[in-house]
Amino acid sequence: MRKVPLAGAAAALVLGVTSAVAIPIASQAAGPGPAKSQTLVFHAVFSPFEFAPTNNVRNPNSPYSLGDELLFHDQLFSSGHHVGDDAGDCVLVDVSQAPLANCTEVIRLPGGTITAQFLNGPPPHKVLAITGGSGVYAAAGGDGTLVEFPNNTGRLTLHVLSLVARGGGG
Length: 170
Known about the structure:
Elements: H1 5-13, E1 18-24, E2 36-45, E3 50-52, E4 69-78, E5 81-94, E6 100-109, E7 112-120, E8 125-133, E9 140-148, E10 153-162
Antiparallel strand pairs: 1-2, 2-4, 2-10, 3-4, 4-5, 5-6, 6-7, 7-8, 8-9, 9-10
């Protein structure tokens, strides 16, 4: 996601997703309504993030202020083929030393979207919580990682659980 203190952290947040290679994983539960699991891996190409100085109270000693936002839109690839994109924003929550931002994103893939949330800051390894989705990912949960490389690319790995209601009740 990138190499600029906050920009690197925020850019990293860009969650530029990596080479999309879906690898189905065995079901994690048996019986009615089992949770189904799959791992998706993407090669991400990060676009330059957009900085939005939303806080009117500026710190003269820093380019960033609490509440400022970083906006991103990145491209996702799998086996060399473009398979989707992601877009999101990060709100700066700490600018005292290494910038720290709370980020949300939507990952758009064939068949639906996956939403995620994560803290963005150095180092270039981010841990994501999958918070939902649409289409084939409508009941998605799980987690993931984003590893940023120095050349504005990265690897996004998502461990997606399909959270299916159990017991057949309605």
